[in-house]
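PROTEIN DESIGN WORKSHEET
SECTION A - STRUCTURE
LENGTH: 462
TOKENS:
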């Protein structure tokens, strides 16, 4: 398909509907991706007494072990997602230019890079898992559970890398439905296997944390193999051929785009480890309230993530078709739709904080401590939408260095110093923590707005 034809099709597409149809499956996919971890926590949190007696540990150790192991799994997942950002940007740009040969070349190198990054991640998880847990001050009786989980999950970490990078490639051509279907299948397999193996249902042995890890490993690994099979057959204009043919120039370009995103995410998580220290200093009740709020917010984030992915794809296609005005229009429409969705969720958080908190922790002291902070989190939802979606648009244009710079400014220059002032010096408790986070998110959104309005992203080569 020639560039002129792509540009003509873009001009004919009704912007609002096109953005909505692309973003909605991405929102649902993100929900399903989150659900994999939530299912593990729920089923381990309901470990039967008979299974606990057989395993030699209870629900608390099981949930803590899998939860802490998943901190490292999440860091690895972030690396795969960062790898995929370059794939989305380059494939979208090639699609917009009508260059199908370039699309296939980028796909091929994306798969090769996914295998390389997955192999590195597997070695790091096995070698650095125990030191990582000690850095998090993991209780001695929880460390064996966490290591069991990590070692099992690491066996399918390469297919998991293929899953996330393959999904990013499909997003690059505007296919958000296939990733949704794959993640739906992944969740069905994970929930079924975890239910069977954690407490030993249907006559199977009770494996506890190992059972949850097996369910997650098989589900995500199987999802990765399914994505690979679909790409080998050909899907949505992408077809993987000559999978072992290395093109160092494209690999370098993919890395140059993805590396700043990986840096951005690691900068944030490094700051988060320090930030958690301020929260821990407030005591168990405040920490439990904060954890419940984070769980609620993880759901409220999903529209922002989905629309950010849509904006990335649409900006890349628009720039590839030499239609920067259309790319800008798509971004603004994605931002408006995402703001509406996240504002509605935010209103629920503002008016019903106690009811929402009780879903996660039914303790009067925790609910009373967290109610005002959850209201603040609800008020900031529209601002979060702006930051998420405009940064997604910038990444789709290949402008991945700016989100890294803004994250350095806000996480280390604002969040941590302000947390020290409000929590340690002024004694504002959990409300000080969330006021800090609201200010951080607001500055991030303002920086994203400024960068996007500057128009510099329109001239970046990928």
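SECTION B - SEQUENCE
RESIDUE ASSIGNMENT:
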């Amino acid at each position: 398909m020639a560039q002129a034809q792509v540009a003509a099709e873009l001009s004919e597409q009704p912007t609002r509907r096109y953005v909505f149809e692309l973003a909605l499956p991405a929102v649902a996919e993100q929900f399903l991706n989150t659900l994999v971890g939530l299912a593990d926590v729920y089923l381990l949190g309901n470990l039967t007494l008979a299974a606990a007696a057989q395993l030699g540990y209870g629900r608390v150790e099981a949930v803590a072990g899998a939860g802490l192991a998943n901190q490292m799994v999440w860091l690895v997942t972030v690396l795969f997602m960062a790898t995929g950002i370059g794939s989305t940007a380059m494939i979208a740009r090639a699609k917009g230019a009508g260059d199908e040969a370039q699309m296939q070349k980028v796909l091929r190198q994306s798969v090769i890079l996914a295998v390389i990054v997955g192999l590195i991640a597997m070695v790091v998880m096995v070698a650095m898992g125990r030191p990582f847990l000690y850095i998090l001050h993991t209780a001695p009786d929880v460390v064996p559970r966490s290591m069991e989980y990590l070692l099992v999950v690491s066996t399918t970490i390469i297919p998991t890398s293929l899953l996330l990078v393959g999904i990013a490639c499909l997003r690059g051509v505007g296919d958000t439905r296939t990733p949704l279907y794959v993640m739906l299948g992944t969740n069905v397999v994970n929930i079924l296997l975890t239910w069977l193996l954690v407490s030993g249902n249907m006559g199977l042995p009770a494996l506890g944390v190992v059972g949850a890890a097996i369910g997650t490993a098989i589900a995500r690994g199987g999802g990765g193999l399914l994505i690979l099979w679909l790409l080998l057959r050909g899907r949505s204009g992408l077809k993987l051929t000559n999978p072992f043919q290395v093109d160092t120039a494209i690999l370098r370009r993919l890395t140059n785009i993805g590396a700043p995103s990986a840096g951005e995410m690691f900068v944030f998580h490094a700051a988060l480890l320090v930030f958690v220290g301020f929260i821990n200093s407030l005591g168990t009740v405040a920490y439990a309230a904060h954890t419940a709020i984070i769980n609620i917010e993880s759901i409220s984030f999903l529209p922002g993530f989905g629309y950010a992915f849509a904006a990335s794809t649409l900006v890349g296609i628009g720039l590839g078709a030499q239609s920067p005005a259309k790319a800008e229009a798509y971004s603004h429409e994605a931002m408006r739709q995402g703001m509406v969705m996240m504002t509605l969720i935010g209103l629920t958080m503002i008016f019903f904080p106690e009811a929402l908190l009780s879903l996660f922790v039914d303790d009067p002291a925790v609910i009373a401590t967290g109610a005002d902070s959850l209201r603040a989190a609800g008020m900031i939802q529209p601002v979060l939408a702006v930051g998420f979606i405009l940064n997604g648009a910038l990444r789709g244009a290949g402008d991945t260095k700016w989100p890294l710079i803004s994250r350095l400014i806000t996480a280390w220059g604002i969040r941590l110093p302000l947390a020290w002032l409000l929590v340690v010096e002024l004694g504002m408790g959990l409300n000080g923590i969330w006021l800090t986070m609201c200010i951080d998110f607001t500055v991030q959104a303002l920086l994203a707005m400024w960068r996007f309005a500057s128009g510099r992203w329109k001239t970046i080569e990928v």
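SECTION C - NOTES
DSSP finds 18 helices and no strands in the chain.
The mean pLDDT is 89.
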